[in-house]
Design goal:
The protein contains 22 helices and 6 strands. The protein is globular and about 65 Å long. With about 575 residues, the protein is mainly alpha-helical.
Length: about 575
Amino acid sequence: MTKIIRRNVRITLSSVFALSLCHAFAVGGPPNRGISGGSVISRSSTLPEPSTSVIFSTNRSSLQKRSTRSYGSSTDLTSSTADVDKESDNKTSTNSLETRGGDTTSTHARTSTWPCLDELDRRVIKLALPTIANFAINPIVGAVDLFWVGKMGNALAVAGQSAANQMFNSCFFLLSYLPSVTATLVSKEHAKESEEGVQDAVCQALFVGSIIALIGTGMIYLLPDVLRLVIPPGSAAHAFAKPYLLIRALSFLPSLITVIGYSAFRGTLDTVTPLKIALCANLLNAILDPILIFRFNMGVQGAAIATVIAEVLSAGSFLALLLKSKMIRWSKIFRLPSWSKLQPLLRGGAALQLRNLAMNFTFLAVARATQSIDSTGVAAAAHSIAIQVFQVGGIVLLALSTVAQTLIPNEMIVKTDPVTGLVSGGIESARGTVRRLMSWGFLLGTFLGGLQIALLPVIHRFSPLVEVQKAALMPSYIASVLQIINGMVFIGEGVMVGTGSFLQLGIYTSVATVGITMALAVLPARFGLTGVWLSFGVFNVLRLLGVVLHQTKLGPLSKRMILKKQEAQITPS
């Protein structure tokens, strides 16, 4: 039976790697080449402002600004139409931009698909490093909690705490989608140097977030049996999960304040302040864990209390610094916002709700399937270890996803330097940035997967139970290999957010959720915990297919949609 499982796992993982490699070349092309083997979209495809043409060099350091006629001239329309015909027929390469009004522009060189440590790579690294540090803290704290609870030597305690954490996180992220829009709103107002605008954006988020926190906390206290969604009735893990969840619910409001505070500072391009607060708060959590769990003999309840205290410290620090920075005023926090000011926050957040619902349903289904495998808690404890393995590399890839969310919309806009007059940005620039980020995702995913495999002996020490370590072995290998596609999935979905393709993202995630639900109905019964992680693989492969579809067919940066938009603009009315 073991040989059959290993054979099936090898086949599955080989297929995943092949699909990932195919996507890396399908979207980005081979090194130094792009989609269509190096052909480029003409100026009319990049759709810059009518008065300028934009020329990009491979190293992104050479930019030229050429005067051209407006789109309205008959010569421009004729040449643009000819370019569309050439592109669609694949008869000629469009490496040169068209002639307009007697001016011939220079050859349009494409951004290298693969990392080469040029200016674009340096921008990505500069944005990613602080974000990685911030994202790294949560799984590290989760690993610390898991380590100390695991030292209790009771698999049921680990299983109960894991299930309660999953339930709290699901409730939190299901109701906290609104603050995720805060960074964008703050960034716009900060760029306008509008102190009032920044205060409005942050205070409105805090007002709405407080209402959401009260709803979330109330739901947990009124419906504690919601744990049945992740723990089967009668499971002994209930005795550990319920008290942990009821205490952890008290951190709902401070957690939301922390999220909003982080988003506010990120909107002002300050990522250092949130990092300092997170380090201090979570250091306190790590210190309190062993004291409350063992010295005061509180068990998993002590771990929950330590987390609540750390969250309160974090929220208080953010509020104090927001007040000091004049980003909030108490009078505005408790003032009912007008609908006109509240609408952008609600509209942007609502667009992300479909995806949040699908993701939460998926993780709850995975948690329930894991808890149902056995009643001893061994499978659930092993799953917790595999999740920690998964998050080792996931934080880096998630950070790149956040970079994509902010970098792509910036690159889509044509910008002129007021001092030098140099022009940058545009659709073609954004396409080149997408290709570079996707190649970063593929390479980093492969590297991180290998690193996680190398770290498995260390990670498995989180539990002293030999049976838990043995049960976590194969799922941990699968979690490591899945990072190959996770890199492209996370970044690809970040591109969807950056281009405003919220509905597409929600639909693709929902389809993937249907896929994992079907897989969970079959694979765990046959392969146990390994089957759960194979189902997780199905989920991420379907998400990758959505990314491919968005970047090659349906997304605003896909060649097909650019040509459709171009044809619509040049068609005479």
